[in-house]
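Weekly structure sync, notes
Attendees: PL (lead), two postdocs, one rotation student
Agenda item 3: pending single-chain targets
PL asked that the sequence for the first pending target be pasted directly into the notes so everyone works from the same version. It is reproduced below exactly as submitted, 706 residues in total.
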Amino acid sequence: MALINKIREKSGIAVTVIAISLILFMVGGDLLGPNSSILGGGNSQTVGEIAGKEINIKDFQSRVDGFRQNYEAQSGRSLSENELASLRDQAWNQYVVDIAYKKEFDDLGLTVTDDELVDMVQGNHISPSILQAFSDPTTGKFDKNAVVNYLKNLKTLPIDQQRSWENFEKSLREERTRTKYENLLKLSTYTPKAQAEKEYVAQSTKANLRYLYVPYFSVVDTTIKVTDSQLEEYLSAHRKEYKGTDTRSIEYVTFPVQPAKDDSAALYNEIKELARGLATAPNDSAFASMNSDIPLPINMSFATMSDQLKEAVKTFVPGGVYGPYREGNTYYIYKYGGTKVDTAYSARASHILIRAENQSDSAKAAARTKAEGVLAQIRAGANFEALAATSSADPGSAQRGGDLGYFQNNGAMVKPFEEAVFSATAPGLIPRLVESQFGFHIIKVTAPKSNTLYRIAAIGKTIAPSQATRDEAYRKADEFANSVKTKEQFDEAIKKNKSLVVATANRIPESATNINAIQNGREIVRWAFKDDSKINSVSQVFETEEQYIVAVLTGKSDQKDVKVDDFRDELTTKVRNQIKAEQITAKLKGATGDLPTIAKKYGAGALVESATDITLATGFLTSAGFDPIALGKAFSLKPGQKTGVFTGENGVFIMELVSKTEAPKIADYTQYKTQLTQSLESRMSYLVNEAIRENAKIEDRRAKFF
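Predicted structure, written out during the meeting:
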């Protein structure tokens, strides 16, 4: 990039010659190599294959361009890179429908007639897409006359709008055909009486259990040695469980383009001048808006403040100017104008979300039971943040200990959750479960509701690295890349240069756009997947955002050739747990007496627990969680019987059935047939899509082009 910038500074014929030479130098290998489109080699013109039909890159790009033109005509702006990637997905999925789905439709003779299409557009059974397109944006009311008038005038509209309507009608036909297909399959679902009776018994038979449980984690991992031959043996026996994928693993170092001391000093002096101007400005909000690099609101709640400002504002006095405060590469100054009361409230809370596996009553009951168990642990003194990290089904907040940050009572959260948080008057755990459409929430209010607004005129100025700073960062990266050609040399250079930190990215898929926290890392991914990128080879310099990157390729996985290294961590855990189970079982075998006696003989790690009124469908064991193996063994016993030692999902058990209340006999199992049928129907679209795609043997090679 630094070299290109220097070329741009030149002029005349020389710049053309140099630029063309540079371009040929950078891409010549691709243009003239074995996959060259110029030489017609390899599969360079094929973007993928669906049901045996190859998709040509020109045809694919033409379809993407059509989608792009329609989108830009409607939105009145150019697409972002993310939006363009989304349109490529849309175009690819359209090919899947046109080829794989259409074969299924044709085999069944499914069609949408012209009369049906008219009925969908302007008849008695209007398509939801038409309803949305021709509804008044203010009232939301559909106007059929608007559709009729539009169609009457269609031929007078520009040709691109006429084509857009043709494509729209085509999509309506496809949507209706697919709906017919899915409805046909839904109506073919059937739940036999025996299965409904089994579900009823699983939900209604209740048992009181006592059990001894030795979890795998009670045996320290470092005491178990796992060999490669054991991993190979396990993988060979469970080959179907480990699907191969094409991925790459890399290590990389970054050379950040950080503002130099001179860049920072110049901005610091500028912002001090702005502080004097802000203090005396007759209209401080206008002055701040005119001079800030970042648009900032005048009235701020705690929900919209940065963490640094939250602490600083406590010391502000009305009329004072404060700062500069530095956050990253931005300096802020604030003029404080006091507080006022807002109509909206803000609060801060954390949550643990327990989500049902599906929408059946049994799955919901199981989720509730699990959530109640987690809530009981917290009320008994367990750490909320730790349980959020291990138990919450909300991955975004789980990694922050459940923290959701500040939010307002403006519908940002679902209604039951919002009502629970904003009804709290003090920080602390809400002592009940809150149910929403997402599942069961365990909520801790960390900052109760407040409707105080702070009037703050703020100016934010971001330090921009100078060109000299950028050139220096590129020089360092280029020098490093030219000095190392192998992984061994890469590692040796890192040891010598203590300022460089190595980062690792494992199992990167070919379609990836980001690498760890690196946005727009597409060029790095494409380099890693090139045929001539060998294991332990070092890349050229890549520029992403405000940094330069040099990478080394450390691993490859092949979809058609699964190796131990592709799943080493997962396989190691499985084999290690097998060995632990064998050790625990050997220590427990032959032990006599009641469960507490056996646990005492075993020693540290053995737990004896009870479960009351548990069912086979929703059974949740206190420490072991949901363990279907343990529950199945327990429910097969007679009262007073114990199992032998056996291995469950996460540890080793001895189960004892204390008592069991059998499900009462009933004559009608319709309710349970309906539950099971609806559960299957709710997954029908997903299952159909997966089955058709698998049957079509789709090969998606778009990542080699984009």
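Discussion points:
- The radius of gyration is 32 Å.
- The chain has 25 helices and 18 strands.
Action: rotation student to compare against the earlier draft before next sync.
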